[in-house]
UniProtKB/TrEMBL annotation, chains A, B, C, D:
This is Gfo/Idh/MocA family oxidoreductase. Residues 391-407 have a biased composition (Low complexity). It comes from Arthrobacter wenxiniae. It comes from the Bacteria. The lineage of its organism: Bacteria, Bacillati, Actinomycetota, Actinomycetes, Micrococcales. The keyword Zinc-finger does not apply. One of its GO terms (molecular function) is oxidoreductase activity. Residues 385-424 are annotated as: Disordered. Residues 151-283 form the GFO/IDH/MocA-like oxidoreductase domain. InterPro entries: Gfo/Idh/MocA-like_OxRdtase_N (IPR000683), Gfo/Idh/MocA_oxidrdct_glycsds (IPR050463), GFO_IDH_MocA-like_dom (IPR055170), NAD(P)-bd_dom_sf (IPR036291). Keywords: NAD, Oxidoreductase. SUPFAM superfamilies: Glyceraldehyde-3-phosphate dehydrogenase-like, C-terminal domain, NAD(P)-binding Rossmann-fold domains. Residues 14-130 form the Gfo/Idh/MocA-like oxidoreductase N-terminal domain.
């Protein structure tokens, strides 16, 4: 195990990113712009890594990286690289992340943590070992850093909703609605692991645990494939993953959440919708209108109660002070910029960022339980708890695993918008 | 001048309605159902009056009236008729209403008060004279009795919005969007008086004065006819009324209101939209969703401010306790039921209902000023004040003319929902 | 078995209603107004029946019934009664309905059909027997008669949505959100049968089957009680019914529906929300805005696709021609008026109205399966099929049981709005 | 007059930006990211210019400029600068822009074109002269480049709305709602020129002309200052600009538009709302939800008509192909990125970008007419036409002045989304 190399104070942090497809582009955009908007430690976009030399060179040029490379192992050996941002496909996460951590590089890895539980567990062990040496790791559930959802978390953490009873989380898309759209690797179990479940239910499950600061303990689930066969390269081919999933989740604190995801919900483009119902307040959100949070204050006289549309663009809202004046809305990509900002602050500040690999594994375990429940006809299935590091591991933080939102709330505090002022 | 005849305590009030077209049907429906939902003095649907004997007899039968008649003058002479509800076309309002008041009948007249200012003034004089004898009169701006708008008035009267600065009032419809739809009496100045201005801007102007409890003092206006010619019985015929109107209104208390109405706003079906902006709160409303009032409390921390959707169906909301449990919404027609309820309570209680004929004339004067301003190319035009009854006229109430909402607020108080409880 | 007595042509149909609480008031309102708006066979509001003589007499007077009575059995013996409208509590449905049918009275019964499956089955047998004698029966799933949902059914039946894949049905209320609100009979299993499941999931399940014209064949369900103890007359008392329920339903035609109901969803007042996703179109609806149907036409170019808000108030929309011009919205209660209208037309026309008792039993069977699945930890549970009358039973109509919407579509056809015109 | 210096093919275009406040930051962000998302000619962020050496150096470092400078005149003399982006305050626009054009630099200037008509006219003359030498100029009405509004323009240009009758344009903000917020240079006529009129009505007026491809010919206007005195450095000071404005605009093609802007509309943060009503279609938009365009197709059967919410995030929508997959929304700032993209393409392609300085002057003239009308009590006031270059000026393009949207539509065409596919 190598310790993190050059301290941030001595020279800019060197960053390598691996992958330049959709997620690679989104992460690159964030690295490219974060310092224009936030006070972050100095860093350099050193190298973009990909499999195809020419293509990755063009991408590096386009996205603002100084160089490109095709051998990620070689990059991990470089002394001028302090941070590795893994945007490669899920099946490569474990191998790259464990090697990078072993090399003493701080690691940010796109969600899902990995395609299998075994790999995820291996990654958690690697992260726990690295953490004792001050090496940081984080999984990229970027929606936690949308101002509206960060505000939602704050309101819940401050008790504005009272005790949470119910969550309704759904994530609806429609890009597979056409039964004639062709077979891809995303629709084969051996390459994709699962379908809508792993791809989008993962976000929904993470939000449930993040918003409530709580942990799912058991589930009942159903999976379904509406289009069972699609045109493949050699004729019709069976689709072997789900294109929709439903589950009911029980949380340790007593709340119940429903999760409902689909890739064939015609007309829904990217509708991660969240509804949280507490004893004294409620919240709703839709990712298609990401600057809006709807909040109902149940302590008002009932004749004045109603869901209010908060346009989350005030300077006092999470992350917004880095951007534009009130009413000038942000987009989807800004969640990645905020993620990089918090990751850099954690690396420089010597703290463990959230969501940790443990939290990423926690989501994977819930998804695995849903899959197992579905296979058993919906029977209630327990979620295996996430392992906590041994006592010896000083930096191991059971708290951060059990309170997924804590790091953000703390980060937010340093950002001087720790809490919404009370009514005067 | 005859005094109102039999006291309400002795026998049920006898009601005659004149007119059985659209408005006649709406009023009949209200008479038919009001006692099923509200505690009102006993009354009987005695007679429906119309020009065509057979048709009015069928309508009387259908809408629940005991008899029908074709001669309204004869009906006014009947001792068993205490109340006359005038739903006849506007050009008949003045003649019937003054005769009915002179005969000691309480009068409810559909808006607009009359087609001309001269007629309206005559009606006001008749109402003022009758009032001294305890005869009641009211003009039917029914939207004041929608629970959501009655609630809006309460919130403003209670100071929840602070001092009002701006109102945006528009009323958009689209039933004349087709340039080939034929000529009708509504599109000829000699029969209709005006177009969108008199028909729908009247509601918008009444709401501005009602919600603010204030009076328009000057205006700048524009009228326009988009479809200048339509198929008539003998070939193309010129449209001689406006199909859209715009105006800026100055109110005595310092607020400025914009009014914007159209019959060719394709896709808007019945969109009376109101936005009221005060120093500490704001309100918006749309008649197409009449159970919803949007309210923003500007005294909250700015990070939590937002327009909240109040579903105005709580028992504590104006008029709602007569109906269904929370969340079971009312429709357009209920405004007429509430209007009848308040009118009956005023008649039985010996108080003057609002909106009075003076208030109806007040709206007409604003419309006349808009028309005059438009004719003068938009030049600012003063609104002539509404005459107040002579000092001798005991019941004359300048206050009710200048505070259009007062009667409703008082009526509401008797209904045990005088005010929204304060925050505890 | 008595045949229906006097033919409708001979004298007005005599109607008796049993019950005068919330539902009794809603039905009375519908009887009181239906003939003012629709061409229906002549009828008379003869008698209102209730347990408490004085109270039912007052209610009869208020709601427009000629007389009142306390003994429903005596009323069933009257020759002048042709129709019995049962608004009594669920535990009385079976006894009254079977007796009324045996007496040759046409029966409309509020949903749910009965509190137990055994009673429901008995009622179905009674209805099947009566049907052979021309005696009609119907269960009151009134939301089928909201214009927006009737339009939704039309669009689906006409194939506008293609093949339906997914339905999301939820019904959220909040009247039990306060943990201190007292114990009532509705919260005890012995009196209420179930909680949110029977009360509001029944509507959601009926809509799923109605809109798709399909039948649920198996379910996976979860029930939960968030507030397990409430103040009772003699101290804290255990709540023995669910206050929220979740289920995944498989339909015979291959669609999957999720159902999600709650009485503690703070801020949701009466939110029956429906989302139907097909291969070429989608629909959404919310009962809190019942005049609006959202429709997405997936055959448009994707750049122009979007959920359009149809304000269902055009004369060509189901039921609307009986009411007001476009844009003048209807309320919750109108669904009952339309229900009475269709019931009267069926009675007079000699056809069987829908939803039949079989359809009511069908909903009960689905709810029973959800309850059984929940008790088994969510395990997939088959829904027992609804029995169809023997071949001898001439009027028995398996078709109407399997195609729940057919009768309405036919009724709608007679109403001259059988189908939305195609694009020209 | 100098010709543009080095051809774009020889070396990257050198860019200088002047100003680093709010608009400077927004433009810098756009320069920083445009090449990561769009194929644009090579360029370099050479130098950022500001008055305060230290501050501008920090800003240059933060926003990605290679150097900083304090003397813009010296920068104009540099041979390596091809493009000058003017984000300095309005009173400096004319001086810098005319000097830059004279030096052969392509100029992009923030809106408004200038603070006075005299300056604006001077700038137009300079632009017309420079245009003959191939030097390009553009004014930054960035909202034209929001995908939703670019799509709106396309739909209107393609005739989807038929002939436009009415536009309702409003721009509501609330940052001056607090009467105690202090005096600033923006509230003094001598420094700001005007208040809400110049600042936000300018956007509304530009959109009216852009969307319709038409020109305002006369106006009737009203200005108002609600808070007439604010705390100044030496005690209370008079506010000498408007904080709200209203106007009715007549367009050459026969349409009428209303414009309504305010800085005290409590709860409205950045609500540029547009409603366009045509004979066969309508459109609405709100800048607070900038990814959504609402479109009503009036050629559908009326029973199916409704405003559809188009989420303008499809690859086929204007500008979107440079960004993320469908449903991943963009923010306010992207309009600037698209503006830079189109400006660069015009510079490299040798075409004149739109909006031209003539179009900027056109907006100023409308605002001046509103001010004059308001001063005359609302009297109808003609808008002075914008001068067109002399015949000798080869590149002078009266067409682009009279058809404000044409350049964008053409630019869009090169982007392979020239038009929305017709229905098949």
């Amino acid at each position: 195990m190598t310790s993190p190399q050059t301290p941030a104070s001595a020279r800019p942090l060197g960053v390598a990113a691996i992958g330049y497809a959709f997620m690679g582009q989104a992460h690159s955009h964030a690295w490219r712009t974060v310092a224009n908007h936030f006070d972050v430690p100095a860093f350099e976009q050193k190298v973009l890594v990909g499999r195809h030399g020419e293509a990755v060179a063009a991408a590096a040029q386009k996205y603002g990286w100084s160089e490109s490379a095709t051998d990620w192992r070689a990059v991990l050996e470089r002394d001028d690289i302090d941070i590795v941002d893994i945007c490669a496909p899920g099946w490569l996460h474990a191998e790259i992340a464990t090697a990078a951590l072993a090399a003493g590089k701080h690691v940010l890895v796109e969600k899902p943590l990995a395609n299998s539980l075994a790999e995820s567990q291996k990654m958690v062990r690697a992260a726990q070992a690295a953490r004792t040496a001050g090496v940081r790791s984080m999984v990229g559930f970027n929606y936690r850093r949308l101002p509206a959802l960060a505000l939602a978390r704050q309101l819940i953490a401050e008790g504005r909703l009272g005790s949470i009873r119910q969550v309704r989380a759904s994530y609806l898309q429609d890009w597979l609605v056409d039964g004639e759209s062709p077979m891809t690797w995303r629709l084969r179990k051996e390459t994709a692991g699962s379908g809508a479940l792993g791809d989008i239910a993962s976000h929904a499950v993470d939000q449930v645990q993040f918003l409530l600061g709580d942990t799912v303990t058991s589930v009942s689930g159903t999976l379904h494939t509406f289009v069972t066969e699609r045109p493949g390269p050699g004729g019709p081919e069976a689709v072997t993953v789900d294109d929709a999933a439903w589950a009911t989740l029980s949380l340790a604190g007593g709340a119940v959440a429903s999760v409902d995801v689909s890739r064939v919900a015609l007309g829904q483009k990217n509708a991660l919708r969240l509804e949280v119902y507490g004893t004294t307040g409620s919240i709703t959100f839709n990712l298609e209108s990401p600057n809006e949070l709807y909040f109902l204050d149940g302590t008002e006289p009932v004749e004045l109660q109603g869901f209010r549309r908060i346009l989350v663009t005030e300077p006092g809202h999470p992350y917004v002070s880095g951007w534009w004046p009130q009413g000038h809305v942000l987009g989807w990509e800004h969640s990645f910029t905020h993620q990089i900002r918090d990751f850099l602050l954690a690396v420089a500040g010597g703290t463990d960022p959230s969501p940790s690999f443990e939290e990423g594994l926690g989501v994977q375990r819930v998804l695995a339980a849903i899959e197992a429940s579905a296979a058993a006809g919906g029977a209630t299935t327990l979620v295996e708890p996430v392992p906590v590091a041994e006592p010896g591991g000083r930096a191991a933080s059971p708290a951060s695993a059990s309170r997924p939102g804590s790091a953000l709330v703390e980060a937010a505090e340093t950002d001087s918008h720790s809490s919404i002022p009370s009514r005067s």
